[in-house]
From TrEMBL:
Lineage summary: Eukaryota, Viridiplantae, Streptophyta, Embryophyta, Tracheophyta
SUPFAM superfamilies per UniProt: P-loop containing nucleoside triphosphate hydrolases, PLP-dependent transferases
Region (Disordered): 1-20
InterPro entries in UniProt: ABC_transporter-like_ATP-bd, Aromatic_deC, P-loop_NTPase, PyrdxlP-dep_de-COase, PyrdxlP-dep_Trfase, PyrdxlP-dep_Trfase_major, PyrdxlP-dep_Trfase_small, Pyridoxal-P_BS
Name of the protein this chain belongs to: ABC transporter domain-containing protein
Family of the protein in this entry: Belongs to the group II decarboxylase family.
The UniProt record lists the keyword Lyase: yes
Taxonomic superkingdom: Eukaryota
PANTHER family membership: GROUP II PYRIDOXAL-5-PHOSPHATE DECARBOXYLASE (PTHR11999), MIP05841P (PTHR11999:SF70)
Amino acid sequence: MASSANGNSDDVDEKITTTTMTGESFRRITTNPTTISSNSIWTNMEMGAFSRSSREDEDDEEALKWAALERLPTYSRLKKGFFVTGSPGNAREIDVKSLGFQERKELVDRLVGDDEEDLSRFLFKLKNRIDRFENLNVEAEAYVGSRALPTFLNYCFNLFEGFFNFLHILPTRKKHLSILKDVSGIIKPGRMTLLLGPPSSGKSTLLLALAGKLDPTLKFSGRVTYNGHDMHEFVPQRSSAYVDQHDLHIGELTVRETLAFSARCQGVGPRYGWEGGLKPMDAEQLREYGHKMVDFIADYYKSIENFPVLSEVEPGYLHKLLPDSAPSHPESLQHIFDDIQTKILPGVTHWQSPNYFAYYPSNSSIAGFLGEMLSAGLNIVGFSWITSPAATELEIVVLDWLAKILNLPNEFLSAGQGGGVIQGTASEAVLVVLLAARDKVLIKVGKNALEKLVVYASDQTHSALQKACQIGGIHPENCRLLSTDASADYALSPAVLGEAISNDVANGLIPFMLCATVGTTSSTAVDPLPALGKIAKSHGMWFHIDAAYAGSACICPEYRHYINGVEEADSFNMNAHKWLLTNFDCSALWIKDRSALIQSLSTNPEFLKNKKLPLMLQASQANLVVDFKDWQIPLGRRFRSLKLWMVLRLYGLENLQGYIRNHIKLAKHFEELVSQDPRFEVVTPRKFSLVCFRLLPHNDEACASKLNHDLLDIVNSTGKIYISHTVLSGKYVLRFAVGAPLTEERHVNAAWDVLQEKASTLLGSM
Ligand code: PLP
């Protein structure tokens, strides 16, 4: 039983005064109900005088309308109904025999819609009600003693006797019983009260009386009101949360839901997030909301092609749509989902759309997503081994697995002096190795030599290197971004590097780091690692390889040769979050000499020492374990290895190789399409899944940039695809990167159709 049947005077508001009747306290509503306006339909139904309670509850109107319907003659009642659309009280009468299209749609929506949310609304509506009963008397005439036994003989006797009683021939032998006598009280469904009493004390009769479901043979007197409305005005089942043992009073509710509701109102039970004290990690609420969120995300992926790939909003759009300040009170999850649909998703560029071909991909997958979920669920902060041994150890194991898949030299494995670590991004990876390289050389040449340190890379190197130099105190002029050109497919020339180093050395500078790239951001250029590595070694320089994008392709034996020469490297980095189905962020960095990294990045503050811990737990101090805090910039770190682990286990290497090969095949297909159209050219030979191409200039090279720029704008503004651009040797070039997990050949073909169509329009208008 989940209703309040007490006369607790705290329960009601100021407008109610307390009276005492038959030993029970209750309050009387002193405000007279006022008449509310009603539309003609309801006036015709003799319900023109809807009274409204002092609470001005709009929902009452709905309940009253239902009551009016319930009292119609059966035939008319079957034909009538009404929809509640939008806000409460916004009810519209309908004739169920002649439903229009919109009404049918609304009906179906409502039937298949989120009834949980409806139920919640219904319950909260009930919560604010004050239901009262005054001077209830329920009496019965019944046989007692042996005559009341359910035997066949008694049945026959009672039948005959009843007939003769009716004819006033025989006096009745039924005894008069009083089941409820002068019972009064107040009910607030928002409060859960146990209605206790010995068997046959009338508990069920009271509930049935309140629900208007008393057996018609019982004699009933007294008054039951719902928010000031009399019983005859209301359909009681729609007005309160009374549930009997058989769970019949309210079709919409089960006993469980009613209990859950009452519990929630009091801050206990599974779904109290909104009302009671905040309990932010209740397992049942997590389960319920988590399922809803997964459903939401699954639906997103199902309908992802319906969104414009590139967001079309104006800068500052969201500021206009959201309130100025955070809510003081909790809001419903449904409300938030609605906002995500209407306000957030329009401002999302859909990286996971199969029509996304811009920049480099950032893959999501079910495995990656599950790992991310688990990581969020455990929410550890694994800076040192003891803060979550599994996090550190799984990271070591998984990066060893991936190193072996990539066939990296053994020195990169954890068993030796090196090992792998997961950084957030390739930018962080290059920064930490730059710091290690800097400090290593400064130990040799003296700390005052900082301004003489020079770093080398090609002009195609990602700007992350420049940023690392800025952070690491390397003088901007000492960051040599050496020229590349089309003749070497934009790869760094060893000769150019050698010459630059010689010049710098001659000028008293100190070369300390070389950063080579396998798969440059602009055009997937691959620097010649073996030759570059040798040069770096001969000058005692740190050799870092950035394979952020193309590293994933090297899990396939046929592409592994692109990282030949990695044996010469001191560090190697690839982003599993780009093209290896591991949700952002997961950037794998391997290093041959981990002590160099630790030397640069380790701090050993007192609060992190394990002094008071047992010997086993003093592992960090004893250098028995890895503390990844010393391999990265921040202290805290997430359990990111779970994602990669899930990906490697749930998919297996062969599937991952197939995934990479398929994207490369699709890119090759696109490249062929481009080559077959004489209006276009492929600008650099394709190596992986990126095609660099452009619309050929009509007359002069100067107009080519504008032409391709316009083409890019036009195709992206269709919302059908999203591509990006780069500049190679001064040419404005379009980039088509295949790599979204849902992309199939049909998407590539459709993208090419869009490009061709818009190119025709552009060229036609010239
Ligand atoms: N290096 C290369 C070759 C890249 O292509 C990118 C990004 O696309 C980066 C580094 C930077 O990646 P992150 O965002 O992980 O720092």
